[in-house]
Amino acid sequence: MAITIVGAGLGGLALARVLRMNGIDAVVYEKEPSRDARGQGGMLDLHAETGQRAMREAGLFDEFHAIARPEGQDLRLLEPDGTLLLQEDTPEDAPLDRPEVDRADLRNLLLDSLPEDAVRWGHAFEHADIGLLHFTDGSTAPYDLLVGADGADSRVRALLTDARPAHTGQNAIELGIPDIDRTHPDLAAMVGRGNYWVLGDGKSLSAQRNGDGRVRIYLSFYNTAEDWFATSGIPCDDPAAARARLIDLLADWDPRFTALIAACDDTVVPRSITTLPVGLTWPSTTGVTLLGDAAHLMPPVGQGANMALLDGALLGLALAAHPDDFPAAVKEYEREMFERTSVAGRLSARIQEILTSPDASQKMLAFFQPG
User: Fold this and answer.
1) pTM of the complete model
2) Which of 56, 82, 153, 184 would bridge with 254, disulfide CB 3.0–4.6 Å?
3) At how many degrees (to 10) do helices 255-262 and 239-249 cross?
């Protein structure tokens, strides 16, 4: 029976890997023309009970540890006036509860664990008839089970539910400083080895150390409209002017923070943050299911990639346990996935609520140091 996965993100690849470990072939169709067609984003912290569990089930735990960065667990939390609220530095012998890993390295690890022909690049899903996929280039592919692992803007999702992602009121811009230790050693020392987070005034600045020496910087603006970029005065197609405008928007923040923006290169990526309803479900449907952001898109606060990886691993195990009864396997997987991701979704929504509050920094400090 043909298992077809749409989307070569972390969840879809984890599913393909676990299936192959259990002697089941699957084909992944991906709209990007190659694995290197675009950047894959920054660092991820893989949680022991979810993302790391998925890597164990995929037989790649040791390989994951080889590319993980324990020091990436370091955290510094500050207020806009420069007050340091929290500094957590990871001891050398600390357990790897949530080590950071470069998303691109993790994706490559999963890709390299599969035969080359397991992923068919340059295939953008258009629609599906019963048992037959159609791609935008006119080609087709048969399937007995279709798994939508095609992310936030999933086209497969429409086969199961009318739910669509809704804007959260958060708009973000990604910037970056390459080779920061060499180019800006003073800023490198300030950011540290892991995550550097400034919260307040309805805004946040997150600086995240990557394994390749780049620091990715995310500026978020909360309680803003979906069309905020059109009215913000940030010319994202003019990097120098965009940096100047962003510095102006943070004019009352400590100059150390605007120095980070001034040091950035010409990468300026706007992102409107959307989510699916927490606790979204659908009636189990023969021949199709979803995983990852296609099923439960959450705010970017540390849960999404972990859930996607575990979705893929657990769906693969369910299919391996019921090789002659895919509908039973899908029902078993969806029942567990709905419950697990509802809990994660509520936690993510709680963190998102903290970020939008007037006293976000103090509430986040209490979140990290309860009691």
Assistant:
1) 0.94
2) 82
3) 170
